[in-house]
Amino acid sequence: MNRLKVLTNGLIRENPVLVLILGTCPSLAVSTQASNAIGMGLAATVVLLCSNVAISALRKIIPDNVRIPCYIVLIAGFVTVVQMLVKAYAPAIDEQLGIFLPLIVVNCIILGRAEMFANKNTVFASALDGIGMGLGFTLALLAMASIREVFGSGTWFGLAVPGLAGHKVSILVLAPGGFFVYGVLIALVNKLTKGKAGKNAEQGCAGCPAAAACGRLGAADEAKEREA
Amino acid sequence: MSRMIVSVSPHIRDKTTTAVIMRDVLIALFPALIAAILVFGWRSLLVTAVCVVSCMTGEWAFEKLTGRPNTVGDLSAAVTGVLLAYSLPAGIPVWQAVLGSLVAIAVVKQLFGGIGRNFANPAVTARIVMLLAFSETMTAWVIPDAVSGATPLAVLKGGDLQNLPGLLQMLLGVRGGCLGETGALALLAGGAYLLIRRVISWHTPAAFAGTVLLLTFLLGKQPVYQLMSGGLLLGAFFMATDYSTTPMTNSGRLIFGVGCGLITVLIRVWGNYPEGVSFSILMMNILTPYIARFTRQRPLGGAKL
């Protein structure tokens, strides 16, 4: 697989938040301020990079039956490291993110990339995938948070935006506004990619993480053959 | 008999169109506008005009952008604009009124497919969005000179019954509140017109108002004032009777009205907000598909559903 493509897949075409619809909970919860979005995005990127590399390196050693607990233990280890680092060097961000920092453990993006990518690709490709997906997550969060902060609080990265201080639409900072901005961004990505985002032409049943549990194994491959 | 035309039902058509119905609703809403201008001044006319113009422009622009057939002519957007304006305080900033109108038309109505396909009442939902978005200006009530202090609902909630406006003032709408919801007599006249013209049936307003009267009587909470304060009359006659967001059968309408009244009283008596009419209508809008399923009419001679 083309390495550049692996790196850039996560930015728009397979953006974890806006196309794969993973990591919705932290995206909605911390995207009220642009600075939170950057902090959360970078923390998750570091964890994703480390976990992708470790899982890819151990993919031949971890028994398939117990792979999920193994992944979770690895991810939790990296999250603990990141959490301690953030607490030590950026206590303000730690206070803002609160519970959502340790909750990176259960962030679907990280487990999702472990299942979908790291456990069947080389260490280098997995590292690139981790960086790309992490940046995609950060960019999506930053876009959501910028819209919500600028129009909801009249500030951007805590700095007052001229002319907006008296025109706040405070619902954007609340939960309904988060869902609304999220939906609008997904629609925008669909428009930009003409609805082709996320429809991976190469993916058949072999590439599907749910293949073992699926009762219709091979159905997708047959469908593709019929199309061709 | 030279030829026979075979076609699907309906075979009998009425002359009534959406535009005729919406024109009737606009006529019925007119007395309340006069009451609003008399009580709150010319700014209420400005707010109403802004909402109507932005709703109709928003509908035209959205349909132009998405290539849908133009439905501005059926006046439904104008009705949405008037209803939204009536549930705003007269002092609302113009840009907020414009934004609220666009939420009503673009988000609540057109994103779900336009007229007849929206699941929630656009005016009610936009009002709730504005209440959450602009909580300061949305509760900055304009109080007419003749009465003092807060809105009747706030007075009722505080239990300070000496400061309630007189019953005549309540009937004429000389009290604090949203610009189009205060004129009880004007709204009743409009409601009567809609009932006579058979645009709405009596079931929803009667069940809604009756439930509120009964429950507040049982709870000892000034039932007559409860009936005339807040947006209850406006909501019961003009918002809870919207065709696409409320049940179509009469029994369904009764259930809808009772549900609205129940939620309104619960919020007014025990909730954090002083008013619950718009929340109650939105919640019952969401329940409407279920009410419709349970109250489906059996075709004459048909099998049990």
Short description:
The complex is a heterodimer of chains A (228) and B (305). With 228 residues, chain A is an all-alpha fold.
How would you characterize the overall build of this protein?
The complex is a heterodimer of chains A (228) and B (305). Chain A contains nine helices and two strands; from the N terminus they run H-H-H-H-H-H-H-E-E-H-H. Chain A is mainly α and 228 residues long. Chain A has a two-stranded antiparallel sheet with strand order 1-2. Chain A is globular, with a radius of gyration of 19 Å. Chain B is mostly helical and 305 residues long. Chain B has a single domain, classed as Ammonium transporter fold, CATH 1.10.3430. In chain B, helix 2 runs antiparallel to helix 3, helix 3 packs parallel to helix 5 and helix 4 packs across helix 5. The termini of chain B are far apart. Classes of the chains: A mainly alpha (228), B mainly alpha (305). Chains A and B meet through helix 8 of A and helix 4 and helix 5 of B.
List the helices and strands and how they pair.
The complex is a heterodimer of chains A (228) and B (305).
Chain A: H1 3-9, H2 24-30, H3 34-57, H4 67-89, H5 91-97, H6 108-116, H7 123-153, E1 155-156, E2 159-160, H8 175-192, H9 219-227
Antiparallel strand pairs in A: 1-2
Chain B: H1 18-40, H2 43-66, H3 76-86, H4 94-109, H5 122-133, H6 135-138, H7 152-158, H8 167-172, H9 184-196, H10 203-219, H11 223-228, H12 232-239, H13 250-270, H14 277-294
Helix pairs in contact in B: 1-2, 1-3, 1-9, 2-3, 2-4, 3-4, 3-5, 4-5, 5-14, 9-12, 10-12, 10-13, 13-14
